[in-house]
Write a structure and sequence with these properties.
about 30% helix, Polyamine Oxidase, Chain A, domain 2, 21 strands, FAD/NAD(P)-binding domain, 5-stranded mixed beta sheet, binds flavin-adenine dinucleotide
Length: about 500
Amino acid sequence: MTTDTDSPSTSPEAAPGTSASTARHIAVLGGGLAGLSAARRLANNGFSITVIEASDHVGGLAASFTKQTEWGTFDYDNGPHRFHTGEEHLNDEVLRLLGENVCMANRQSRIFLFDRFFHYPLQGANILKLPKRVLIKAFWDYFIVKLRSLFGKRLKDENFENWVVNRFGRKLYDIFFGVYTEKTWGIPCSKISADWAAQRITLLSLWDTVKKTLFRPKNVPRTLVSEFFYPRHGGIGTLCRRYAEELEKEGHTVHLNAPVTAVEVENGQTVAVRHRTADGGEVRLPCDGAIATIPITKLAGMIEPPAPQSVREASAGLKHRSMIFVYLILDRPKVTDDHWIYLPEQRLTTHRLSEFKNFSPDAAPKDKTLLCAEITCDYQDDDWNKSDDELQEIVVKDLTDTIKLIDANEVLMTFSRRERYAYPIYDLEYRERRDAIIEFIDHIGRLETTGRQGLFKYNNMDHSIGMGLAIAENLVGGGRDHKEVATEQKWFG
Ligand SMILES: Cc1cc2nc3c(=O)[nH]c(=O)nc-3n(C[C@H](O)[C@H](O)[C@H](O)COP(=O)(O)OP(=O)(O)OC[C@H]3O[C@@H](n4cnc5c(N)ncnc54)[C@H](O)[C@@H]3O)c2cc1C
């Protein structure tokens, strides 16, 4: 093990968990949006920053990559990433980062059901294209739940299934919410916490949709909600790359290929972190405090002295769903106008398909298309371990035989990426377990955990940026509580 010789000041003054206005050197664990936004805000306020990132790139889940091929250059993300927020200051922050490198896109998503495509969320006359028997049953079931509700006979909102059935009726649960969720999460909906539905499903009343369909007011202007901005070049990962460039330009450090292995605590205070180096060594970095945005399950296991048994058990019980991104380069200018298409049906292995050219026209050469098929799985299960050839066979079969979107002989190239910590699984016990770990960390001085991974929260990019900025502002003195970000429904609008 070596020690960082040029590590910044180790002033023992204030740091995370204290009134930190005079803190000096902060180690930021993880180079995704939460870590880098916190780092940037702290750097602006006179802190010295070292960001320590395990992989060979910044961006985390919101990273982007570039593929140079004989047909030209392709930019692609970890599945589709659309930035939107109800918070003006976060909008401004992202626009600041992008500068001139920005383009607008009109949001379009569809869902493939009963061998047809429907706009998603269901809109316009679309809903009436559902098979009649399905439509009648959906309305009947919806009527029944409303009636039940009126007489106080609702199911208890104790899990995802009941929550959805209570609000949408059994048929809509069966044809969409249930199948899609089980496919994505890999566990029955009765074992998924209602928290997830409450956060993620916009409460669209079926009747409202029909009213808007049949009695649509004329000349309604297109609202800004249906538009979003996106980097013209470089994919969504541009955001994190810009943060890293800004930090490095001002003399701060961003270590890549440097998985953190330990957080050293002495007398209840964080004093150093250790991370591996590319040559297999280990570096000790003394610090005045640390902000962790890495998976909370990993963090719980790397604190020295070790967390109590109960915390380690809670950590072992928290599970993540993993994801394989299968990318196809196709010999055609365009496949759809969609940003993404949901594929809830169990007969398809792919659960969502996205087309990056529809985010930015410069994401792919004019005459070629890059599609991303997402397959959810568990870490190291059969799917996780499939070769690119096997994955290509599965995805191409989905897209040719069932959805009939492409022709097999148009596929020029396939490659894949894997994300182990894609989704925190909100099972029925997750909240208790997560809170036990957070409580333990809250008692350690100069250590904070935040972001999607650090709070085990199924959030969006704006939330992670909001959490990072909030925690930095806390340390500077004041600001909102980072744990409050993405708790209220308004954040998920
Ligand atoms: C498929 C998919 C699609 C999405 N689509 C959207 C969308 O359309 N709109 C939207 O707003 N949001 C979307 N999101 C969510 C968004 O990507 C996340 O909310 C956000 O990127 C999380 O940022 P973060 O910094 O909190 O966490 P992460 O991005 O997970 O960052 C954590 C970082 O910690 C690093 N790390 C892990 N272990 C260690 C270690 N031991 N040492 C050092 N570093 C470590 C990781 O490599 C990673 O870089 C999507 C997510 C997924 C998975």
